[in-house]
Amino acid sequence: MNRDDLIKCSIFYDGDYNKIKNAFVNNEIIESNKIVDNAITILDENYPANFLQLKDPPFVLYYKGNLELLKRDCIAVVGSRMACEYALQATKGLVMNNNDKVIVSGLAKGIDAMAHRYASKTIGILGCGIDYKYPYCNYDLIKKVEKEGLLLSEYPFLSKPYPYRFPFRNRLIAALASKIYIMQSKLNSGTMTTINQGLELGREIKVLPYSIFDENGINNNNLIYEGADLILKNEIAF
Length: 238
Description:
alpha/beta, Rossmann fold, 2 domains, 9 strands
């Protein structure tokens, strides 16, 4: 199977990982005249090496923006969609203090949006099609990242944002980053899937500490108790 056949399979199976994998292994050929210019495949020389560390590396990545950012030092900044003010301001300060790094996040509401908004260089990884602007409240921000940074997705065109795709997407965020910064988290959340993927990949996990009286920080403080590194005051610009 060549790269064009792989892209055709990705489109035909709407980015479904297992179906694409099966087609790849069995050299399945899909008949299609569809031509796609903005895609990287696992067969290409410019395929991001970090993704090859995954047990389930994406076969095809669709993109919009500056691919050169994939060659830079990246850090992930992630957290709750319903973030508290403390976490949001700490995210802003952390990102501004790391303007030499490429900030990777998932373009969700809350922490992700704040991280992308204040980053000078950023990569947004979608859990839906590369042309699907989701969540719609971040429409302008997504367009900004597309124009000034890089959008990535393993889902083609207007492929829908099914809930199960977002935890699976998080493995890509973890893989691209040398460090993963956790600004606010809950025990059963997408942020925890990013942490678990990061631990599997040997990434450094850094966690924002909270007051013992702040219920928003219970899970973050538990992560620190379990051995995660603290985000220190000197890492945040005020």
